[in-house]
Each structure stands twice: as structure tokens, then as C-alpha cells.
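Sample pair:
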Amino acid sequence: MNLVDTIRYGLAGLLVYIALNGVPEQVKILEPYSGPLIHINEAAAVMETQDRQGLSEALTAASKMLVDKANLLKTTEDLQEFIKGTISFGYTSFSLKQYPKVAAEIQKELESSVGTTVQTLTPEIKEDVAKKLSELSRAVK
């Protein structure tokens, strides 16, 4: 067997591997978070990896669902209940008791957007909260 045959067999083997297993995925190297919510990122550093991932996904889902085409959220109280429900639904590994500092920091950030009093929910508040939820997701991850 000469060099040309060896290369051909190698390429044939590679094609068979790709046909059976697909193209190998590139490993993504995550850069450290450097956004405006660095204090959230630092607080979340104590969380287990799967808990961080779950919370991050819940925050992302909440930000995407705030489009609210049916206009079901009418007050900031509705918005607060929506956020609580979205974050806790399906992500039981995230616990206030287990990560009280993370929960407190997230609550503080959301209160800065939503407010602490019940008021009519404006499109501007919705948009601000959606952006905040999205940024929180990146900071937690």
C-alpha cells in the first residue's frame, strides 16, 4: 500500500464517520461575563452548573414571553406574578433557600425595572423588564 492509497482510505474512513455521526461540533469557549450586572454573575458563581443553566433558561424564556400579544399582563403586579411563575415553573432546583443571595440580587434588579408599587403596565416597562430579564440570563449563565 502506498501513500496515495493510505490517504484515500483515511478520507473514506472520515466520510463514513461523518455519515454515521455527523459533523463534529466545535467546542464553544465561553468568555467571562463582563456586562452591567457583574454583581449578579459573581453572586451566581456559588450555584451548581445545572442550577445556573436552569435559572438562565427560565429568565430567557420569561423575557421572550413578555411579548404578551393577548395583553394578559395589565399591571405591574401581574408582571411580578408572571416572572415568579416563569422562573419557578420547571426549575425546582433553583431555590430561594439554597441561593438566597442570588435571589435577593435578582429581585433587586427586577424591582428597579418593575417598581414596588402596583401600577398600569406600559409598553416601556414591559420592554425594560424584557431587556433586564435577558441580561440577567446572561449574567447568571
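Residues 31 and 141 are 11 Å apart (CA to CA).
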